[in-house]
Design a protein that fits this description.
The protein has 258 residues and is of the alpha/beta class. The chain is built from six helices and nine strands; from the N terminus they run βαβαββααβββαβαβ. β2, α2 and β3 form a beta-alpha-beta unit. The protein starts with a strand and ends in a 16-residue tail after the last strand.
Length: 258
Amino acid sequence: MSKTEVVVHANQDLLAAAAAARLVTRLVDVQAAKGSASLVLTGGGTGIAVLTELRNSSARDAIDWSRLDIYWGDERFVPADSDERNEKQAREALLDHVPLDPKRVHAVAASDGEFGDDPDAAAEAYARVLADNAGPDEGDVPTFDIMLLGLGGEGHTASVFPESPAVYEKERSVVAVRNCPKPPPTRVSLTLPAIRRAQDVWLMTAGEAKADAVALALSGADEAQLPVAGARGHRRTLWLLDRTAAGKLTKVDQPPTA
């Protein structure tokens, strides 16, 4: 049965460092158990800070990078060289500094890539990537080992925004998202059903602006109004917060600060 855990750190720097250390341990354990592992990355300040901490960690080489599949939970549909692109940020923070197998890095097409400025085609292509990498008993989406996600103050996660068409999607694993309330307006995102195929979902965020969304999600808010409430891991949902992001949790909900 899936369980939800909350870990609160004193500040964003400690959160990023602790999450990076936790990530090393979990990936090493998964690889020891089954030979390879899969990791879904997120963008945003906290997500990229975790990757930077991992790059600088003396323990990073405990991971067998050649036996790691990398995916993204969402991508900004911008040119490949745009600083807004999650893939570019992740490569600069970590991926270009470790010996990954290029064939196991599964990026979403850019707006100047093979599908041109067609986010629907890019989404359909990424859905095919997921299906091609799913096992015979997994259907159209792999069972990701760890999925890293952030969240917005209004409750979005990946690029699934409140009351958007994406939040109501039940059939497709990947969709194009238009008219996002935050720039850039066009994105490609995994849907909530695809997110829930992950064994572990780690929701990482910091800052007072996220406190209301965190508290609402942990109190059982409806996912249509607060999509992050629908981001759950099959095995575990782990909330990694700093003290300010956890500020609206009740004393019953909030564990001691790590």
